[in-house]
Amino acid sequence: MISIKSEREIALLEKAGNIVYETHKYLEPFIKPGITTAELDKLAYDFILKNGATPSFKGYEGYPASICTSINQEVVHGIPSKKKLKNGDIIAIDIGACYKGYHGDSAWTYAVGEITDEAKYLMEHTKKSLYIGLNEVKPGNRIGDIGFAISEYATKHNLGVIKELVGHGVGTNIHEEPDVPNYGIKGTGPVLKEGMVIAIEPMLTLGSPEICILDDDWTIETEDYSLSAHYEHTVVVTNNGYKILTGGKNGEE
Ligand code: MF3
Ligand code: CO
After folding, report:
1. What range does the domain containing 162 cover?
2. What's the pTM?
């Protein structure tokens, strides 16, 4: 069952989403060569608590940190550690916050210092693919329309689409129905209805889309070690489209 959220619930989801957005903005100036991912995690933890929320990921299925920090060939679920960021890295930071029982979930990829043109290309088109997917979000469209649009765009730009990891519904649980794959067939899957809340999160690669999981049982990376980027927003389906919940109070992305 895909739940339809009430106006009260959407307001709380938006508050949670806004805290996620503010946490991204707070971290951004710290994303520089020399900082460790554990330091970023601590900054995020303190910031989320200060804003009256709790980090959604901490303890989720035993996840040990507040945010996920996935560097270069790492796709998702990188665990913050003593490893320092280096000039030329790209880092996907995934943040979840829970406010009064409701979650927000958003990931963004950042450049560390000066990055290659290839890395810029990957980031630019992965971000664009998120908006291409969002463009399909309106009542009457189906989940398959979103994935179709994302994978068509990615393929056209020679980027690999990771299929094992998907977006999801969001509410009083960080992961709810439905699954929102980044590939699909137009006109298939659950029908979108006003009040549904979903997270769309394309993960694209410069090389092969095959992935493997590391010995820490969390970090997922590309099998061929190619760079990967990840962008995610939580959105609510409105009467004629969607509204981003994990943006700024004045509609900033
Ligand atoms: N945003 C991530 C996702 O949707 C959630 C991370 S789950 C955690 O997959 F377990 F790593 F916390
Ligand atoms: Co997510």
Report:
1. 7-244
2. 0.98
